Amino acid sequence: MLPNQAQAPIEIPEEDVPQDQLWNALDRGTQLEKIRQILKSHERIGERILELRREEGMRLPGGFQVERLVEILEEHYGGEKLLDIEIDMMQKGILSPYYNETKTYFYYFRC
Predict the structure, then answer these.
(1) What are 83-109's pLDDT values in tens digits?
(2) Which superkingdom, per the lineage (predicted)?
């Protein structure tokens, strides 16, 4: 193409690109990313619970117990809140109210 020639914008006929499908695909991608983040938070919260219990010199829950502790938090606060719970536990450590809540739940497991 010569530098003096103006390039016309590419036009795509509307009937060739279903807009609803495009928006649904974008929305689906956003939802998948959010789910991926929630699942990663779920894992990291479990790891953080173990770290904090080690730090306090407390008995460590087993793998299924850690999983259940995180599930209880998820059931109580909702899956999307797990991202905030993870941040809170990372910032506040043993002072996190969510972490202290898991100590109570673990106590009930032991009874």
Answers:
(1) 999 999 999 999 999 999 999 999 998
(2) Eukaryota
- Residue identified by tokens 């972490």 is 99
Q: 80 near 67, Cβ under 8 Å?
A: no
**SS3 category, 108:** helix
* Phi, psi (degrees; rounded to nearest 5) at 78: 95, 150
Contact 93, 53 (CB under 8 A): no
Question: What's the whole-model pTM score?
Answer: 0.73
d(CA 76, CA 83): 14
Token couple for 12? 């795509």
**Spatial distance between the Cα atoms of 11 and 13, rounded to a whole number of angstroms:** 6
The full set of domain ranges for the chain reads 22-110
SS3 81: helix
